[in-house]
Specification:
The complex is a heterodimer of chains A (about 375) and B (about 100).
Chain A lengths: L8 E5 L26 H13 L4 E5 L9 H10 L3 E6 L6 H10 L2 E7 L5 H8 L3 H14 L4 E7 L7 H11 L5 E5 L5 H4 L1 H4 L3 H17 L4 E3 L3 H17 L19 E4 L4 E3 L10 E2 L5 H7 L1 H7 L26 H8 L11 H6 L8
Helix pairs in contact in A: 1-2, 2-3, 9-10
Chain B lengths: L7 E2 L4 E4 L5 E5 L4 E5 L1 H9 L6 H11 L7 H14 L3 E2 L7
The chains are: A alpha/beta (about 375), B alpha+beta (about 100).
Chain lengths: ~375, ~100
């Protein structure tokens, strides 16, 4: 098995604190996470190690990374170690001072701000009063300072019918190049509020239809690597292949999703090294105690995830008799874990056969 | 770039030696990355501002069993490509 000497990217939850409590947050209400923060010095020491490991990029999330008063110092530590960074934020705490600082580093790939609607009625429904106004203020502040802004729209029951207006806001009014979409997944706080937040099959179909229309209307500026838009495209290809009796897809028929463990790793806010910030129960070591390169190259749990792609879907009772198996990747291991208790299992959330059995159709696609 | 030039690798640039002798040079200020092989890595490590490209090419030739006749031209071309990408700094000196 070929493994890079060190990870190319490290996803870091800089803090377990957040100024908001969004009802579908994947981070909070996770029994595997102790929700403790590390002092500045611990992160700076770790960034020195990342520099020695020739890590190229870090993605800083949380919690809300802008809640850390020492954020400028931490970003300086990242730049000093010849890395670039991205920040994932709700936007509310971004002010001129920090935006100017980020711009001056010259190392920021982007700041991603979550926007879930065209106005406070939809955005604040799951994020709390004032969150919409704060997010837009944050975006405009970053734009004013020339910092690249990315936006992620998380689709849920309260904004699924606001997608057209949201696209107008983001692309026409704010002038973003593009925005990404996903949907609330069965992780963290979303598990507590699933009935109120997660899309029903009918709502999922509506989201797919609208997003496909918007992606065409805006010429690819509405994007997705997961969620309804991604599923609409993937499932249409799978159905077409099944109907034509096409040969298996190159990555089909096995647990080939996802490939993150070949190039990146993650760190929890308390310093535990984990395979992914959505697989936080698999502790691989601790920063500044265990060598990152050793963990990366030799940890049995990480190497087990890397050979997950060899596991045939035909082995699972869940997939028995499914005509889509040759075209299916099993999808997200983190969602598979929260839904089934097993990482090495196909994710029921992204199962086309189950979607159809629940009354879903692909005719709009 | 002249073969007598003594380019120096920009210390900001990160060299990632991956696997199968493959490597990446990455500039964190421009986010530009360049893939290269073992010979490229050897040249990169020799760009210390002390050695000329002629000297570096001679070292590469001595290290390789089947070095082509174009080692010097290839070394100069690689250095020129890196210069265009702002990965190396060059102070041209006529030492001839």
């Amino acid at each position: 098995m070929h493994v890079m000497r060190t990870p190319r990217t490290v996803d870091i939850d800089l803090t377990a604190r957040c100024n908001l409590r969004c009802r579908y947050c994947y981070f909070f209400d996770n029994p595997a996470v102790p929700y403790e923060d590390l002092p500045t010095e611990e992160w700076l020491r770790f960034f020195d190690e990342l520099g020695r490991c020739a890590v190229m990029d870090v993605c800083l999330a949380g919690g809300e990374p802008f809640i850390r008063e020492d954020l400028p110092q931490l970003l300086e530590g990242i730049a000093h170690n010849r890395m670039r960074f991205a920040l994932l934020s709700n936007g509310v705490l971004i002010d001129d001072e920090i935006a100017a600082f980020i711009a001056a580093t010259g190392r920021c790939n982007y700041v991603q701000v979550s926007v879930d609607g065209s106005g406070p009625e939809t955005h604040d429904a799951c994020r709390g009063k004032g969150a919409f106004e704060g997010a837009l203020r944050g975006i405009r502040t970053l734009q004013r300072h020339g910092v690249k802004v990315a936006v992620r729209v998380t689709i849920h029951r309260h904004n699924v019918h606001d997608l057209e207006a949201t696209a107008r806001l983001l692309l026409d009014e704010l002038g973003l190049d593009s925005f990404g979409t996903n949907s609330a997944g069965y992780l963290g706080s979303c598990r507590v509020h699933a009935d109120d937040v997660m899309l029903t099959t009918q709502e999922r179909m509506a989201a797919m239809e609208t997003l496909l229309h918007l992606a065409e209307k805006y010429d690819g500026r509405v994007q997705a690597s997961a969620g309804p838009l991604s599923e609409a495209r993937t499932w249409a290809r799978m159905e077409e292949a099944r109907a034509a009796g096409a040969p298996p897809f190159p990555n089909g028929g096995r647990l080939t999703a996802c490939g993150c463990h070949s190039s990146k790793i993650a760190v929890r806010a308390d310093g535990a090294i984990v395979p992914c910030n959505m697989l936080t129960h698999i502790e691989l070591g601790r920063i500044n105690q265990d060598s990152l390169a050793e963990v990366w190259q030799r940890h049995p749990a990480l190497n087990e995830l890397r050979v997950r792609h060899a596991i045939p879907l035909a082995e699972f009772e869940f997939c028995a008799g499914c005509e889509y198996v040759p075209y299916c990747t099993g999808n997200c291991p983190a969602l598979a874990y929260t839904l089934t208790g097993q990482v090495n299992h196909p994710s029921p959330d992204a199962c086309l056969r189950r979607f159809l059995a629940d009354g879903g159709t692909l005719k709009a696609i | 770039m002249k073969p007598t030039a003594k380019p120096v690798a920009d210390p900001q640039v990160v060299l990632r030696e991956e696997f199968d002798d493959w490597a990446v040079l990455f500039h964190p200020l421009t986010a530009e990355a360049v893939g290269t092989g073992p010979v490229g890595v050897a040249i990169w490590k020799a760009l210390d501002g002390q050695r000329t490209l002629t000297e570096i090419a001679a070292e590469i030739e001595a290290q390789c069993e089947d070095a082509p006749d174009t080692v010097l031209e290839d070394t100069v071309a690689f250095a020129e490509d890196l210069e265009r990408r702002l990965f190396v700094l060059v102070e041209e000196k006529d030492e001839g």
